[in-house]
Backbone:
């Protein structure tokens, strides 16, 4: 019988192993384990007891708190970060014939959102150091059909918004930020969400704050926010809380073709108690980051580059790039050995053109964007949750060092 936390039979060792794993299966360190406490549990229970578990007052409270944290006037909570991207592109008026420039080094939802509005994704390779969009490549990729830039603040590192902003202004392009990794990020002392026409965040299970599943769209104008809200509820002019929470019953109208993308009060109840702790959790992740930098510096892998001046990295992911030749070990074998040692790790991300769908339907090949391809094939994300104990962190370090010594 095979253990669910290791690819080898229970009680046995893989060919490379020497001795027992760093953590036994019953203590497997789950990658991205959320930090949830009694306050979140109590708030969810209170929602259930109230009889109002759909979109209602707690969603509105969460939206207000999120907008305040990001220094913007308007925030709309939705069902996922992917939904946030889709709705932002729809509200921006993007559609067939429009080109949107984005990165190949991202989760598929970034490109999928462009395809869902029937626009054309145009990929530009990333800067090797920052792993973010290379502004010089973006400038070269602009055509008469380009309508928007969709940069991703990868792993929580802010993109070069000065350079991208100049390109957007010169060509009158929309700037729509994929900030799924970057709630806490700052650029020139300003929150990430305060720069673009839209910014899209994720509050999924493994993000730095969670609502279980969820996302948020922030935007500059009340009109854009209202359209995002309407599109998230089937195109209704009045959502559920607006109909039944008011003094009198109000009928809704369907003015546009929308989606079922709304966040629930049950989800917002969790987020209401996550947001107040976001800065403390960032401080803890910064401590873990520094410990990894110190402990892994002599190994055959590349640790993350320091943040750029006058920016704040959100420290969402600690990604290392394995030097396979020096380590005499493939990235995937490294992942398997870490798993056998009881440490959950991730891959963020394989470049989008590695996947069958985009090769088959768009004709993309990974080699067209060689930097993203190389990063995606060598990257490993180590645990960086704020709830890691010092002992957890040391176990990760021991497992990495043992794996690369084997």
Residues:
């Amino acid at each position: 019988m095979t253990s669910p936390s290791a690819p080898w039979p229970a009680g046995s060792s893989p060919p490379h192993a020497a001795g027992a794993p760093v953590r036994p299966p019953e203590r497997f360190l789950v990658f991205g384990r959320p930090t949830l406490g009694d306050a979140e549990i109590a708030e969810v229970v209170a929602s259930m007891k109230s009889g109002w578990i759909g979109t209602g007052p707690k969603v509105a409270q969460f939206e207000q708190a999120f907008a305040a944290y990001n220094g913007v006037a308007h925030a709309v909570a939705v069902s996922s970060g992917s939904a946030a991207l889709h709705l932002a592109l729809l509200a921006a008026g993007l559609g067939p014939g429009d080109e949107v420039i984005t990165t190949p080094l991202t989760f598929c939802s970034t490109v999928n959102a462009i395809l869902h509005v029937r626009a054309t994704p145009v990929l530009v390779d990333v800067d090797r150091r920052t792993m973010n969009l290379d502004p010089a490549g973006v400038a070269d990729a602009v055509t008469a059909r380009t309508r928007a830039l969709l940069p991703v603040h990868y792993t929580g590192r802010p993109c070069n918004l000065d350079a991208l902003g100049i390109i957007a202004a010169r060509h009158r392009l929309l700037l729509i930020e994929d900030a799924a990794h970057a709630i806490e990020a700052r650029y020139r002392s300003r929150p990430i969400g305060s720069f673009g026409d839209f910014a899209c965040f994720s509050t999924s299970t493994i993000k730095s704050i969670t609502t279980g599943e969820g996302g948020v769209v922030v935007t500059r104008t009340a009109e854009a926010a209202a359209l995002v809200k309407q599109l998230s509820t089937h195109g209704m002019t009045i959502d559920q809380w607006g109909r039944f929470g008011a003094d009198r019953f109000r009928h809704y109208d369907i003015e546009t073709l929308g989606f079922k993308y709304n966040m629930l009060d049950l989800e917002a109840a969790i987020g209401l108690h996550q947001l107040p702790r976001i800065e403390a959790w960032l401080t803890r992740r910064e401590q873990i980051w520094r410990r990894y930098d110190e402990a892994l510096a002599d190994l055959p892998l590349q640790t993350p580059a320091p943040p750029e001046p006058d920016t704040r990295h959100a420290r969402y992911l600690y990604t290392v790039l394995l030097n396979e030749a020096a380590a005499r070990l493939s990235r995937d074998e490294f992942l398997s050995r870490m798993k056998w040692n009881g440490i959950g790790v991730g891959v963020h991300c394989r470049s989008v053109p590695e996947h069958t769908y985009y090769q088959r339907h768009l004709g993309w090949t990974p080699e067209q964007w060689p930097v993203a391809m190389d990063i995606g094939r060598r990257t490993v994300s180590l645990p960086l949750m704020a709830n890691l104990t010092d002992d957890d962190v040391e176990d990760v370090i021991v497992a990495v060092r043992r794996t690369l010594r084997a």
